[in-house]
Write a structure and sequence with these properties.
Radius of gyration: 39 Å
Strand content: 5-15%
Order of helices and strands: HHHHHHHHHHEHEEHEE
Largest sheet: 5 strands, mixed
Transmembrane segments: 33-52, 64-81, 88-114, 120-140, 147-168
Protein name: histidine kinase
Strand order of the largest sheet: 1-2-3-5-4
Pfam family, one: HisKA_3
Number of strands: 5
Enzyme class: transferase
EC number: 2.7.13.3
Distance between the termini: 76 Å
Protein backbone atom coordinates (compact mmCIF):
# COMPACT_ATOMS: atom_id res chain seq x y z
CA UNK A 1 0.00 0.00 0.00
CA UNK A 2 1.40 3.40 -1.00
CA UNK A 3 0.28 6.93 -0.23
CA UNK A 4 -0.33 7.64 -3.91
CA UNK A 5 -2.85 4.80 -3.99
CA UNK A 6 -4.62 6.21 -0.91
CA UNK A 7 -4.48 10.02 -1.20
CA UNK A 8 -6.26 10.57 2.11
CA UNK A 9 -3.09 9.39 3.87
CA UNK A 10 -1.11 12.35 2.52
CA UNK A 11 -0.20 15.05 5.08
CA UNK A 12 -2.15 17.70 3.16
CA UNK A 13 -5.31 15.59 3.32
CA UNK A 14 -4.86 14.87 7.02
CA UNK A 15 -4.30 18.54 7.82
CA UNK A 16 -7.62 19.60 6.36
CA UNK A 17 -8.38 22.89 4.62
CA UNK A 18 -6.44 25.99 5.58
CA UNK A 19 -8.28 28.42 7.84
CA UNK A 20 -8.38 32.20 7.30
CA UNK A 21 -6.32 32.90 10.44
CA UNK A 22 -3.60 30.29 9.81
CA UNK A 23 -1.26 32.80 8.18
CA UNK A 24 -2.07 35.67 10.48
CA UNK A 25 -3.91 38.90 9.71
CA UNK A 26 -2.53 42.31 8.96
CA UNK A 27 -5.36 43.99 10.86
CA UNK A 28 -7.41 42.67 13.75
CA UNK A 29 -11.17 42.68 13.52
CA UNK A 30 -13.46 43.58 16.40
CA UNK A 31 -13.92 39.87 17.11
CA UNK A 32 -10.13 39.41 17.19
CA UNK A 33 -9.75 42.21 19.73
CA UNK A 34 -12.44 40.68 21.93
CA UNK A 35 -10.87 37.21 21.76
CA UNK A 36 -7.35 38.54 22.41
CA UNK A 37 -8.54 40.59 25.37
CA UNK A 38 -10.35 37.57 26.81
CA UNK A 39 -7.24 35.40 26.40
CA UNK A 40 -5.10 38.06 28.05
CA UNK A 41 -7.46 38.34 31.02
CA UNK A 42 -7.60 34.54 31.45
CA UNK A 43 -3.82 34.28 31.42
CA UNK A 44 -3.54 37.21 33.83
CA UNK A 45 -6.12 35.64 36.15
CA UNK A 46 -4.23 32.35 36.30
CA UNK A 47 -0.99 34.23 36.83
CA UNK A 48 -2.42 36.30 39.68
CA UNK A 49 -3.75 33.16 41.37
CA UNK A 50 -0.33 31.56 41.10
CA UNK A 51 1.33 34.73 42.38
CA UNK A 52 -0.99 34.77 45.39
CA UNK A 53 0.09 31.21 46.20
CA UNK A 54 3.74 32.26 45.96
CA UNK A 55 3.20 35.25 48.24
CA UNK A 56 1.47 33.02 50.79
CA UNK A 57 4.67 30.99 51.16
CA UNK A 58 6.65 32.55 54.07
CA UNK A 59 9.93 31.25 52.67
CA UNK A 60 9.61 33.32 49.47
CA UNK A 61 11.40 36.67 49.51
CA UNK A 62 9.93 39.90 48.17
CA UNK A 63 12.53 39.95 45.42
CA UNK A 64 11.24 36.67 44.02
CA UNK A 65 7.67 37.98 44.16
CA UNK A 66 8.67 41.15 42.29
CA UNK A 67 10.54 39.18 39.61
CA UNK A 68 7.65 36.75 39.26
CA UNK A 69 5.23 39.63 38.87
CA UNK A 70 7.29 41.32 36.14
CA UNK A 71 7.95 38.11 34.23
CA UNK A 72 4.31 37.03 34.48
CA UNK A 73 3.15 40.43 33.20
CA UNK A 74 5.61 40.23 30.30
CA UNK A 75 4.39 36.71 29.43
CA UNK A 76 0.75 37.87 29.39
CA UNK A 77 1.62 40.89 27.24
CA UNK A 78 3.48 38.61 24.81
CA UNK A 79 0.15 36.93 24.04
CA UNK A 80 -0.75 39.88 21.79
CA UNK A 81 1.74 38.40 19.29
CA UNK A 82 0.25 34.92 19.36
CA UNK A 83 -1.55 35.35 16.03
CA UNK A 84 1.63 36.22 14.15
CA UNK A 85 4.10 33.85 15.82
CA UNK A 86 2.05 31.18 17.66
CA UNK A 87 4.67 28.41 17.48
CA UNK A 88 7.63 30.56 18.49
CA UNK A 89 5.70 32.16 21.33
CA UNK A 90 4.53 28.75 22.60
CA UNK A 91 8.10 27.39 22.59
CA UNK A 92 9.43 30.46 24.41
CA UNK A 93 6.71 30.33 27.06
CA UNK A 94 7.25 26.57 27.47
CA UNK A 95 10.89 27.13 28.30
CA UNK A 96 10.05 30.13 30.51
CA UNK A 97 7.42 28.17 32.48
CA UNK A 98 10.07 25.68 33.64
CA UNK A 99 11.40 28.33 36.05
CA UNK A 100 8.48 30.74 36.24
CA UNK A 101 5.13 29.31 37.45
CA UNK A 102 3.38 32.67 36.96
CA UNK A 103 3.72 32.19 33.15
CA UNK A 104 1.60 29.01 33.25
CA UNK A 105 -1.59 30.83 32.22
CA UNK A 106 0.11 32.47 29.24
CA UNK A 107 1.56 29.09 28.26
CA UNK A 108 -1.88 27.44 28.20
CA UNK A 109 -3.28 30.23 26.02
CA UNK A 110 -0.30 29.97 23.65
CA UNK A 111 -0.70 26.20 23.34
CA UNK A 112 -4.41 26.65 22.61
CA UNK A 113 -3.53 29.15 19.84
CA UNK A 114 -1.06 26.72 18.28
CA UNK A 115 -3.67 23.95 18.28
CA UNK A 116 -6.25 26.24 16.65
CA UNK A 117 -4.10 28.01 14.05
CA UNK A 118 -1.53 25.37 13.06
CA UNK A 119 -1.82 21.89 11.49
CA UNK A 120 -1.30 18.62 13.28
CA UNK A 121 2.49 18.22 12.96
CA UNK A 122 3.61 21.48 14.66
CA UNK A 123 0.98 20.96 17.35
CA UNK A 124 2.42 17.53 18.11
CA UNK A 125 5.99 18.87 18.28
CA UNK A 126 5.14 21.82 20.53
CA UNK A 127 2.84 19.68 22.68
CA UNK A 128 5.53 17.03 23.12
CA UNK A 129 8.00 19.70 24.25
CA UNK A 130 5.50 21.14 26.72
CA UNK A 131 4.69 17.70 28.13
CA UNK A 132 8.37 16.79 28.42
CA UNK A 133 9.26 19.83 30.56
CA UNK A 134 6.21 19.59 32.84
CA UNK A 135 8.15 17.88 35.70
CA UNK A 136 10.94 20.50 35.59
CA UNK A 137 8.98 23.39 37.10
CA UNK A 138 7.64 21.55 40.20
CA UNK A 139 11.13 20.14 40.72
CA UNK A 140 12.91 23.54 40.58
CA UNK A 141 10.17 25.51 42.37
CA UNK A 142 7.96 23.09 44.27
CA UNK A 143 4.59 24.10 45.66
CA UNK A 144 4.58 23.60 49.44
CA UNK A 145 0.87 22.71 49.36
CA UNK A 146 1.10 20.15 46.52
CA UNK A 147 3.33 17.15 46.07
CA UNK A 148 5.66 16.75 43.11
CA UNK A 149 3.61 13.90 41.64
CA UNK A 150 0.33 15.80 41.95
CA UNK A 151 1.82 18.95 40.37
CA UNK A 152 3.20 16.91 37.49
CA UNK A 153 -0.07 15.11 36.84
CA UNK A 154 -2.08 18.35 36.99
CA UNK A 155 0.34 20.00 34.55
CA UNK A 156 0.11 17.09 32.10
CA UNK A 157 -3.68 17.03 32.25
CA UNK A 158 -4.00 20.79 31.71
CA UNK A 159 -1.72 20.73 28.66
CA UNK A 160 -3.51 17.74 27.15
CA UNK A 161 -6.89 19.37 27.81
CA UNK A 162 -5.88 22.66 26.20
CA UNK A 163 -4.34 20.98 23.15
CA UNK A 164 -7.35 18.71 22.68
CA UNK A 165 -9.75 21.62 23.00
CA UNK A 166 -7.81 23.65 20.44
CA UNK A 167 -7.71 20.77 17.96
CA UNK A 168 -11.47 20.27 18.32
CA UNK A 169 -12.04 23.97 17.62
CA UNK A 170 -9.80 23.78 14.56
CA UNK A 171 -11.58 20.67 13.27
CA UNK A 172 -14.95 22.36 13.65
CA UNK A 173 -13.75 25.46 11.81
CA UNK A 174 -12.32 23.32 9.03
CA UNK A 175 -15.65 21.52 8.75
CA UNK A 176 -17.50 24.83 8.45
CA UNK A 177 -15.07 26.06 5.80
CA UNK A 178 -15.39 22.80 3.89
CA UNK A 179 -19.20 22.92 3.98
CA UNK A 180 -19.19 26.55 2.88
CA UNK A 181 -16.90 25.77 -0.05
CA UNK A 182 -19.06 22.80 -0.97
CA UNK A 183 -22.20 24.98 -0.90
CA UNK A 184 -20.56 27.60 -3.13
CA UNK A 185 -19.43 24.88 -5.52
CA UNK A 186 -22.92 23.38 -5.60
CA UNK A 187 -24.47 26.78 -6.36
CA UNK A 188 -21.96 27.33 -9.16
CA UNK A 189 -22.69 23.91 -10.64
CA UNK A 190 -26.45 24.55 -10.43
CA UNK A 191 -26.02 27.88 -12.23
CA UNK A 192 -23.96 26.16 -14.93
CA UNK A 193 -26.61 23.45 -15.34
CA UNK A 194 -29.33 26.09 -15.64
CA UNK A 195 -27.29 27.98 -18.23
CA UNK A 196 -26.69 24.78 -20.17
CA UNK A 197 -30.41 23.95 -20.08
CA UNK A 198 -31.27 27.39 -21.47
CA UNK A 199 -28.64 27.03 -24.19
CA UNK A 200 -30.02 23.61 -25.20
CA UNK A 201 -33.54 25.03 -25.28
CA UNK A 202 -32.43 27.83 -27.60
CA UNK A 203 -30.66 25.32 -29.82
CA UNK A 204 -33.88 23.32 -30.07
CA UNK A 205 -35.74 26.49 -31.06
CA UNK A 206 -33.14 27.25 -33.72
CA UNK A 207 -33.40 23.75 -35.21
CA UNK A 208 -37.19 23.88 -35.26
CA UNK A 209 -37.15 27.32 -36.85
CA UNK A 210 -34.95 25.98 -39.64
CA UNK A 211 -37.15 22.95 -40.24
CA UNK A 212 -40.44 24.84 -40.25
CA UNK A 213 -39.47 28.05 -42.04
CA UNK A 214 -37.27 26.51 -44.73
CA UNK A 215 -40.27 25.27 -46.72
CA UNK A 216 -42.16 28.58 -46.46
CA UNK A 217 -39.19 30.66 -47.46
CA UNK A 218 -38.44 28.34 -50.38
CA UNK A 219 -41.94 28.93 -51.75
CA UNK A 220 -41.46 32.66 -51.38
CA UNK A 221 -38.20 32.49 -53.27
CA UNK A 222 -39.63 30.36 -56.08
CA UNK A 223 -42.66 32.56 -56.74
CA UNK A 224 -40.71 35.79 -56.39
CA UNK A 225 -38.15 34.43 -58.87
CA UNK A 226 -40.95 33.55 -61.30
CA UNK A 227 -42.28 37.11 -61.19
CA UNK A 228 -38.78 38.43 -61.78
CA UNK A 229 -38.21 36.01 -64.69
CA UNK A 230 -41.56 36.82 -66.38
CA UNK A 231 -42.35 40.47 -65.81
CA UNK A 232 -44.73 40.37 -68.81
CA UNK A 233 -46.90 37.55 -67.40
CA UNK A 234 -50.69 37.95 -67.60
CA UNK A 235 -52.25 39.92 -64.73
CA UNK A 236 -54.16 36.86 -63.52
CA UNK A 237 -50.95 34.83 -63.20
CA UNK A 238 -49.16 37.72 -61.48
CA UNK A 239 -52.07 38.09 -59.04
CA UNK A 240 -52.05 34.35 -58.33
CA UNK A 241 -48.28 34.37 -57.63
CA UNK A 242 -48.62 37.44 -55.44
CA UNK A 243 -51.36 35.72 -53.48
CA UNK A 244 -49.19 32.67 -52.95
CA UNK A 245 -46.33 34.90 -51.77
CA UNK A 246 -48.65 36.73 -49.39
CA UNK A 247 -50.10 33.51 -47.97
CA UNK A 248 -46.65 31.93 -47.59
CA UNK A 249 -45.33 35.02 -45.82
CA UNK A 250 -48.31 35.06 -43.44
CA UNK A 251 -47.95 31.36 -42.66
CA UNK A 252 -44.21 31.75 -42.13
CA UNK A 253 -44.87 34.58 -39.68
CA UNK A 254 -47.42 32.48 -37.81
CA UNK A 255 -45.03 29.54 -37.63
CA UNK A 256 -42.28 31.81 -36.35
CA UNK A 257 -44.53 33.13 -33.59
CA UNK A 258 -45.51 29.62 -32.52
CA UNK A 259 -41.90 28.42 -32.48
CA UNK A 260 -40.75 31.33 -30.37
CA UNK A 261 -43.54 30.58 -27.90
CA UNK A 262 -42.98 26.83 -27.71
CA UNK A 263 -39.82 25.04 -26.56
CA UNK A 264 -40.21 21.67 -28.19
CA UNK A 265 -37.28 19.43 -29.16
CA UNK A 266 -36.91 17.44 -32.37
CA UNK A 267 -37.84 14.23 -30.57
CA UNK A 268 -41.30 15.72 -29.92
CA UNK A 269 -41.79 16.97 -33.50
CA UNK A 270 -44.36 14.55 -34.81
CA UNK A 271 -46.34 16.23 -37.58
CA UNK A 272 -49.16 13.67 -37.40
CA UNK A 273 -49.69 14.17 -33.67
CA UNK A 274 -52.23 16.87 -32.72
CA UNK A 275 -50.72 19.54 -30.51
CA UNK A 276 -52.38 20.15 -27.12
CA UNK A 277 -54.32 23.36 -26.57
CA UNK A 278 -56.15 24.97 -23.69
CA UNK A 279 -59.30 23.14 -24.75
CA UNK A 280 -57.60 19.83 -23.86
CA UNK A 281 -56.76 20.97 -20.31
CA UNK A 282 -59.83 19.11 -18.99
CA UNK A 283 -58.48 15.88 -20.45
CA UNK A 284 -55.13 16.48 -18.73
CA UNK A 285 -56.84 16.98 -15.38
CA UNK A 286 -58.99 13.88 -15.90
CA UNK A 287 -55.90 11.85 -16.73
CA UNK A 288 -54.21 13.05 -13.53
CA UNK A 289 -57.28 12.13 -11.50
CA UNK A 290 -57.29 8.65 -13.00
CA UNK A 291 -53.66 8.34 -11.87
CA UNK A 292 -54.83 8.92 -8.27
CA UNK A 293 -54.18 12.65 -7.88
CA UNK A 294 -56.58 15.09 -6.24
CA UNK A 295 -56.91 17.92 -8.75
CA UNK A 296 -59.31 20.86 -8.70
CA UNK A 297 -59.65 22.78 -11.98
CA UNK A 298 -60.95 26.36 -11.90
CA UNK A 299 -61.13 27.44 -15.55
CA UNK A 300 -62.81 30.84 -15.71
CA UNK A 301 -62.34 31.37 -19.45
CA UNK A 302 -65.66 31.71 -21.21
CA UNK A 303 -64.51 29.95 -24.40
CA UNK A 304 -61.23 28.01 -24.02
CA UNK A 305 -61.39 27.04 -27.69
CA UNK A 306 -61.05 30.70 -28.68
CA UNK A 307 -57.61 30.98 -27.10
CA UNK A 308 -54.86 31.18 -29.75
CA UNK A 309 -52.94 27.97 -30.30
CA UNK A 310 -49.52 29.21 -29.11
CA UNK A 311 -50.50 30.61 -25.68
CA UNK A 312 -53.02 27.80 -25.16
CA UNK A 313 -50.36 25.19 -25.80
CA UNK A 314 -47.97 26.98 -23.44
CA UNK A 315 -50.62 27.05 -20.68
CA UNK A 316 -51.17 23.33 -21.21
CA UNK A 317 -47.45 22.56 -20.93
CA UNK A 318 -47.11 24.64 -17.76
CA UNK A 319 -50.03 22.87 -16.11
CA UNK A 320 -48.69 19.50 -17.25
CA UNK A 321 -45.22 20.10 -15.79
CA UNK A 322 -46.64 21.52 -12.53
CA UNK A 323 -48.93 18.51 -12.06
CA UNK A 324 -46.01 16.18 -12.72
CA UNK A 325 -43.88 17.95 -10.11
CA UNK A 326 -46.72 17.85 -7.58
CA UNK A 327 -47.17 14.12 -8.15
CA UNK A 328 -43.43 13.55 -7.54
CA UNK A 329 -42.74 15.94 -4.67
CA UNK A 330 -46.11 16.28 -2.88
CA UNK A 331 -48.04 13.03 -3.30
CA UNK A 332 -51.42 12.80 -1.67
CA UNK A 333 -52.02 16.57 -1.63
CA UNK A 334 -54.84 18.36 -3.43
CA UNK A 335 -53.55 20.39 -6.38
CA UNK A 336 -55.46 23.46 -7.57
CA UNK A 337 -55.21 24.62 -11.20
CA UNK A 338 -56.71 28.07 -11.88
CA UNK A 339 -56.92 29.70 -15.32
CA UNK A 340 -58.19 33.26 -15.73
CA UNK A 341 -57.95 36.06 -18.27
CA UNK A 342 -59.35 37.17 -21.56
CA UNK A 343 -58.52 38.91 -24.85
CA UNK A 344 -56.42 42.00 -24.25
CA UNK A 345 -55.57 41.19 -20.64
CA UNK A 346 -53.71 37.93 -21.17
CA UNK A 347 -53.99 34.50 -19.61
CA UNK A 348 -52.95 33.71 -16.04
CA UNK A 349 -52.44 30.12 -14.90
CA UNK A 350 -51.74 29.21 -11.27
CA UNK A 351 -50.93 25.73 -9.96
CA UNK A 352 -50.69 25.33 -6.18
CA UNK A 353 -50.24 22.42 -3.82
CA UNK A 354 -49.93 22.38 -0.01
CA UNK A 355 -47.06 20.77 1.87
CA UNK A 356 -47.30 16.96 2.08
CA UNK A 357 -48.60 15.74 5.43
CA UNK A 358 -47.68 12.06 5.08
CA UNK A 359 -44.15 10.63 4.82
CA UNK A 360 -43.05 9.61 1.35
CA UNK A 361 -39.93 8.73 -0.59
CA UNK A 362 -38.94 11.79 -2.64
CA UNK A 363 -38.38 11.32 -6.37
CA UNK A 364 -35.10 12.87 -7.53
CA UNK A 365 -35.39 15.67 -10.06
CA UNK A 366 -32.99 17.94 -11.92
CA UNK A 367 -35.15 21.08 -11.89
CA UNK A 368 -34.68 21.52 -15.65
CA UNK A 369 -38.43 21.34 -16.30
CA UNK A 370 -39.13 24.60 -14.46
CA UNK A 371 -36.17 26.22 -16.22
CA UNK A 372 -37.61 25.19 -19.58
CA UNK A 373 -41.06 26.49 -18.63
CA UNK A 374 -39.59 29.84 -17.58
CA UNK A 375 -37.77 30.10 -20.89
CA UNK A 376 -40.92 29.09 -22.76
CA UNK A 377 -43.03 31.75 -21.07
CA UNK A 378 -40.36 34.43 -21.54
CA UNK A 379 -39.96 33.75 -25.25
CA UNK A 380 -43.76 33.84 -25.62
CA UNK A 381 -43.75 37.39 -24.25
CA UNK A 382 -44.94 36.44 -20.77
CA UNK A 383 -43.41 35.55 -17.44
CA UNK A 384 -43.35 32.66 -14.99
CA UNK A 385 -42.66 32.63 -11.26
CA UNK A 386 -42.30 29.58 -9.03
CA UNK A 387 -41.31 28.92 -5.46
CA UNK A 388 -42.47 27.89 -1.99
CA UNK A 389 -45.85 29.17 -0.83
CA UNK A 390 -46.40 30.79 2.61
CA UNK A 391 -48.17 27.66 3.86
CA UNK A 392 -45.17 25.46 3.08
CA UNK A 393 -46.46 24.20 -0.26
CA UNK A 394 -45.37 25.13 -3.77
CA UNK A 395 -46.79 27.53 -6.33
CA UNK A 396 -46.29 28.06 -10.07
CA UNK A 397 -47.78 31.23 -11.58
CA UNK A 398 -47.48 32.30 -15.22
CA UNK A 399 -48.90 35.08 -17.37
CA UNK A 400 -49.07 34.95 -21.16
CA UNK A 401 -50.25 37.63 -23.59
CA UNK A 402 -53.53 37.25 -25.47
CA UNK A 403 -54.09 39.82 -28.19
CA UNK A 404 -57.56 41.32 -28.37
Amino acid sequence: MTRTEYPWLLPSAMAGPELPGDRGRSRRTVRDWVVDLTAFLCAAGIGLATLATIEADPTTSDTFVLVDSLVGAAACCALWFRRRWPVGLAVALTLLSTVEPVAAGALLVALFSVAVHRPFRPVVLVGALALAVVPVQPYLRPDPNTSFLASTIIGLLLILLVLSWGMVVRSRRQLVVSLRERAVRAETEAALRAEQAQRLAREEIAREMHDVLAHRLTLLSVHAGALEFRPDAPPAEVARAAGVIRDSAHEALQDLREIIGVLRGPRDSDGNRPQPTLATLDALVAESREAGMKVTLDNRLADPGAVPAAPGRTVYRIAQEALTNARKHAPGTEVTVAVTGGPGQGITVEVRNPAPTEPFTPVPGSGQGLIGLTERATLAGGRLDHGPAPDGGFEVRAWLPWAS
